[in-house]
Amino acid sequence: MEIPHRVLLLLLLPISFAIAQNAPTEEVQEFHVGVILDLGSMVGKIARTSISLAMEDFYAVHQNYSTKIVLHIRDSMSDDVQAASEAIDLLENYNVEAIIGPQKSSQAIFISKLGNISHVPVISFTATNPSLSTRSLPYFVRATINDSAQVNCIASIVKTYGWREVVPIYEDTDYGRGIMPYLVDVLHEVDARIPYRSVIPLSATSEEITQELYKLMTMQTTIFVVHMSDTLASLFFIKAKEVGMMNKGHAWIMTDGVTNLIDSLSPSVLESLNGALGVEFYVPKSRELDDFTMRWNRRFQIENPTDPPLKLSIFGLWGYDTIWAVAQAAAEVGHANTTFKKPGVERNSTSLEILETSSNGPKLLQAIMQNKFRGLSGNFDLSNRQLQISRFRIINVVGNGWREIGFWTAQSGISRRLNKTRLTTHLGSEHDLNPVIWPGESIEVPRGFQIPVSGKKLQVGVCTSGYPEFVKVKKDHITGATKAIGLSVDVFEEAVKRLPYALPYEYVLFSTKDDGSTEDYNNFVYQVYLKV
After folding, report:
1. Is 39 helix (H, G, I), strand (E, B) or coil?
2. Measured between alpha carbons, how far is 9 from 2 in angstroms, rounded to an integer?
3. Pick from 9, 13, 32: which is nearest to 21 by CA?
4. Alpha carbon distance 97, 361 (integer Å)
5. What's 391-458 look like in SS3?
6. With the CA atoms of 255, 258, 261 and 267 taken in that order, what torsion angle do they form, in degrees rounded to the nearest 10?
7. Which one of 232, 251, 283, 448 is at 20 to 30 Å from 329 when CA atoms are compared?
8. Number of continuous H segments (helices) and E segments (strands) in the chain
């Protein structure tokens, strides 16, 4: 009797399997999203690997989501016109409901205007120019920090070391120029003057950079703040080392555009950066970040087998978190009822005038802004349509790497450790930071000024005194230089040493007699008055 039961069971299994196959399944709704990056750049390559991992990770965690974003990745080729062309193509031919990118601030301005027209959110995790106002561009979301967020940290460094003059060096682009008004203001607040601004064209040759460096060498100021993209900065610092401006007495502060990529710079560039300080966005350590970093390294090598190895940077983490924010917002808003409305325009209208308007845009924008979570980069909060100021780490480039010398937060200012609390202020001392190895492997804090290559010296009149313990003057018969010793001379030279800048000077002998007698002192003072 057992055999018939087994036959019946075997007959029922195919029937059950067929029913399971025919069971209704929820259809996945595709949510089209454009991505515009400079795929040949360091940032673009890092971000692309992070984005692909973010897609895998998000939908591995949310397998039951019925709305899934589909990415359309485009290469801007580091060209503003190409980026705009790709954005228009994505909007016209793919009806994308969001655009992630573009990479450059100059590209983001125009593409964000397209977003305003089409009601398509534009979310960039690399466009940091403060001129990208979220007020005038309501569909622009900055999934990174504004460049102006770091200027208070830079000003605190300048104040900490007592520097009175600073020369900004920046690239001649929207990105380079955008930070300057904010930097000038905060440096003024800490009584630091800007005697000169060095503007480097993005297309500058090695010879043009060298010529500008020689010009800087003719000035007294030796404290520089460099705000450039990683490519231009790499060439600039190599040339700075070649002409001798990475030697003792100089101080260099890099903004986060370079410092955030410090681990991916070539050994030759790191060598030229030795002694420089850098400001970078601080990412708290976590086990999740360590695990992701190992996975990212493996994936990057697979995707870029012929490229030199790069290291995961904050731009990669922001790219990863941006995908999670957009994917979650897409799931909340959905795609089923999305429509694209054509504007009522004439037949001969331009391409921009006939862009369709997304009905989902306002809801998607709100969902992105309301989606707050703890990401790989830290707290990811776009409620103000840009990430909030958090904390910066200050590093010192040493050898083939770097070391941490302190932190800056909006609440506590500069400190060696993050848990140190005090009222926010620019005031501080070098003891608030760990020791620095300055250019030229010096441990002495640069004074900020030095004798310029072609500068004039202050002429200090001296005369033989009847009291040699106060002033005694003699001529060096070999060099012809006038030398002076004595208590009055010591007081003068000590005062010069205490100045917050270099004061080149030379002694000029008033009396030419060798017998110790003096000219009339009043006549001496009168000759100084006449500037003889």
Report:
1. coil
2. 11
3. 13
4. 7
5. EEEEEEEECCEEEEEEEEECCCEEECCCCCCCCCCCCCCHHHCCCCCECCCECCCCCCECCCCCCCCE
6. -130
7. 283
8. 16, 21
On whether the CB atoms of residues 224 and 251 are closer than 8 A, the answer is: yes
- Please give the chain's pLDDT, 532 residues, in tens: 444 444 434 444 444 444 444 444 567 899 999 999 999 999 999 999 999 999 999 999 999 999 999 999 999 999 999 999 999 999 999 999 999 999 999 999 999 999 999 999 999 999 999 988 778 899 999 999 999 999 999 999 999 999 999 999 999 999 999 999 999 999 999 999 999 999 999 999 999 999 999 999 888 899 999 999 999 999 999 999 999 999 999 999 999 999 999 999 999 999 999 999 999 999 988 999 999 999 999 999 999 999 989 999 999 999 999 999 999 999 999 865 666 556 554 544 445 666 788 888 999 999 999 999 999 999 999 999 999 877 999 999 999 999 999 999 988 899 998 875 554 444 455 668 999 999 999 999 998 887 665 556 778 888 877 778 888 888 877 777 888 888 888 998 888 777 655 577 888 887 645 444 445 667 777 777 776 6
**Residue 464 φ/ψ, nearest 5 degrees:** -65, 135
CB 386 within 8 A of CB 142: yes
d(CA 109, CA 384): 18
CA separation for the pair 94, 254 (Å, rounded)? 40
Residues listed for the chain: 532
Closest CA to 505 of 518, 522, 491, 492: 492
Selection from 209, 280, 279, 281 nearest residue 245 by Cα: 209
Dihedrals φ, ψ of 81, to 5°?
Answer: -65, -40
Q: Quick one: 400 exposed, middle or buried, by C-beta within 10 A (0-12, 13-18, 19+)?
A: exposed
Would you give the distance in Å from CA 112 to the centre of its chain?
A: 22
Is-contact 258 273, C-beta < 8 A? Answer: no
Q: Which candidate, 9, 11, 49, places its Cα nearest to that of 309?
A: 49
Residue 277, helix vs strand vs coil: strand
Q: How far apart are CA 240 and CA 242, in angstroms?
A: 5
> What kind and span of H or E run contains 61?
helix 42-61
DSSP 322-378: HHHHHHHHHHHH-STT--EEPP---TT--TGGGPPEETTHHHHHHHHHH--EEETTE
Contact of 402 with 395, CB cutoff 8 Å:
yes
